[in-house]
Design a protein that fits this description.
By secondary structure, the chain is an alpha/beta fold. 50% of the residues lie in helices and 6% in strands.
Length: 351
């Protein structure tokens, strides 16, 4: 029972470690959770967001993602007050009898100290951080950024940006830096290795938060939302992407072409040079994290691939010349053109 030791549980990501699944499951049956002493508040203005504390993270960074701006154009981020948002989230928390979960995968290490100041000093806090080996993580993160039209750059440029630059808009997968920041601010940071717990993310979260299992809780589907290799290549092949509406039509055309042709496979487009860059940037950080956690006996937890030579990888330049991709592209373009023509005709008819 969560009520045995009420606390604030901070789930701080990282993104692409089943965060959305975890957040949606926490909100699937809130009354049942609260009967077990676990409270998951929601801000009404952004109830459509899975993470209940993502608006707090956005306010702390003062730089919303493009996805956030498209979903909530009416919200002026510069007018947000993080302290007021935290107060609103905690206003109905029964702090003597239940624990409360605040979850946001867009929280960054530089938010840790400020967030500690905003939360009640007398309340125990437990920080939960899910991490994943950087090669697989970047595959998934880049895929999402392309799918949401947050980036149109090649993978190599994206890797260079994560390795060589700073800033809050993107999550940098230096997990030891994340661990240090949250542990320094809150006195603890319970790290969960995603690959160890992928079959039961929710159970792993409860364990890391110091909570007992909750029986009879509604589960939800963990839908596959990544672009397959054909869809990813197609969107990256658009040399001059138009507006967001046009991008959505292109993406829908690619998805429809995939269904017609029965293509589903996902593959990494990291190159040997990308992998070398990731190892150079993150291997020492990974070693320090495993040592700090007493897990140095199992370096495979965060061990990156040495080569892009396996079937898990795809050379995009070669892929673009393949007959299968050319057929896919031809079909996707045809679907896109028919949709555009149909939309233009409807627009003329309405006049």
């Amino acid at each position: 029972m969560a009520a045995n030791s009420p606390r604030i549980i901070l789930h701080v990501g990282a993104p692409k470690t089943a965060s959305t699944y975890l957040q949606r499951r926490l909100r699937a049956d809130p009354n049942h959770l609260r009967k077990h002493g676990l409270y998951v508040p929601v801000l009404p203005s952004v109830a459509a967001m899975a993470g209940n504390a993502k608006l707090v993270a956005t306010a702390l960074s003062e730089r919303p993602s493009l996805t956030f701006q498209r979903a909530f154009p009416e919200i002026d981020v510069t007018a947000l007050n993080p302290a007021n948002l935290v107060s609103e989230l905690l206003k109905d928390w029964r702090r003597d009898s239940e624990s409360v979960v605040l979850s946001a995968e867009n929280l960054r290490p530089n938010h840790a100290a400020r967030l500690r100041e905003l939360l009640p000093k007398e309340a125990p806090c437990v920080v939960v951080l899910f991490v994943r080996r950087q090669d697989r993580w970047i595959d998934s993160y880049f895929n999402q950024m392309v799918k949401t039209s947050e980036t149109h750059q090649p993978m190599s440029a994206f890797v260079a940006q994560l390795c060589d630059t700073e800033g809050e808009r993107l999550c940098r997968p230096d997990w030891f830096a994340h661990y240090q920041a949250w542990r320094g601010a809150f006195g603890n940071c319970n790290v969960v290795f995603y690959d160890e717990v992928a079959v039961d993310v929710f159970g792993a979260f409860l364990t890391a938060a110091g909570l007992e299992p909750i029986t009879d809780l509604i589960d939800i589907d963990r839908a596959q939302v990544s672009l397959n290799i054909y869809e990813l290549a197609y969107l990256l092949d658009l040399k001059k992407p138009g507006g967001y509406d046009d991008f959505l039509r292109r993406r829908a055309a690619g998805e429809r072409a995939s269904r017609r042709l029965g293509v589903r496979e996902t593959r990494s487009i990291l190159s040997d040079a990308d992998l070398a860059r990731l190892r150079k940037r993150f291997e020492e950080s990974n070693r320090r994290l495993l040592t700090a956690l007493g897990r140095s006996d199992n370096p495979t937890l965060l061990q990156l691939d040495l080569s892009a030579g396996s079937e898990l990888y795809c050379d995009l330049d070669e892929f673009y010349t393949s007959e299968s991709y050319r057929n896919y592209r031809k079909l996707a373009d045809a679907i896109y053109s028919r949709r555009n023509l149909r939309d233009r005709l409807r627009s003329l008819w309405k006049r």
